[in-house]
Here is the input.
Amino acid sequence: MAVPKRKTSKARRDKRRANWKLVLPGMVKCSKCGEYKLPHRVCKACGTYGDKEVLKAE
Here is the structure.
């Protein structure tokens, strides 16, 4: 097996692991009711997609 020639420092190791953070999904406001939703998806609050009513609102 390949063996490392030198010890990897803690700083170098941690720099490599710095990019494993979680990111929030991009949320947009619904144009009809103003609730936050995922883009290009039906709004769960009012049931619209664009200007059309797709789902029945409860």
Notes: The chain has a mean pLDDT of 90. Residues 4 and 54 are 58 Å apart (CA to CA). The longest helix spans residues 10-17. The helical segments are 10-17.
